[in-house]
Model the fold of this input.
Amino acid sequence: MSVKFFNQELFQLLQQGANESPRRRLNHNIHQDLNDPVQRLFITLMPDSYVRPHRHSQLEKWECFLMLQGQVAFLIFDESGKLLQRYELNADGPLRGLEIPANTWHTVVPGDEPATFFEVKQGPYQAMEDKDFAAWAPIEGPQGQDFLSRLKSLKVGQSAAR
Done:
């Protein structure tokens, strides 16, 4: 195993790749294998990237996030889509990261500039079992973009449900 470095060049490449991606985001895995017991990755979101609300229902699937550049709103919902908490994470602000327990409905809403964060979660990654998507939130695409606009201004206590 060799030492890995995470420099500004990597973050610029992530931003460029996210800008060119149809999903308007890009991740860079640090872990070697999707079966690794700890998944470590950088994720860059462009301001118009819609991350469909979801949860990781396996009991051991907590997630930890730490902002490196920019800002995002981290939203936590109840089962029906009511916004329970809204956390503003900012690489230069007072709240720079958080950890959520398994089975927590959530999404990440980018701010007005590209944002990069570091995520740590338990593996292995299994695409078919990784997450449950909220039935009250649209899939990615044109409807997702309209929903993202709504999420950007959603207040605690309001429902995100369509």
Notes: The chain has a mean pLDDT of 92. The longest strand covers residues 38-45. Strands lie at 25-29, 38-45, 54-55, 63-69, 71-77, 83-90, 97-100, 105-110, 115-122, 132-133.
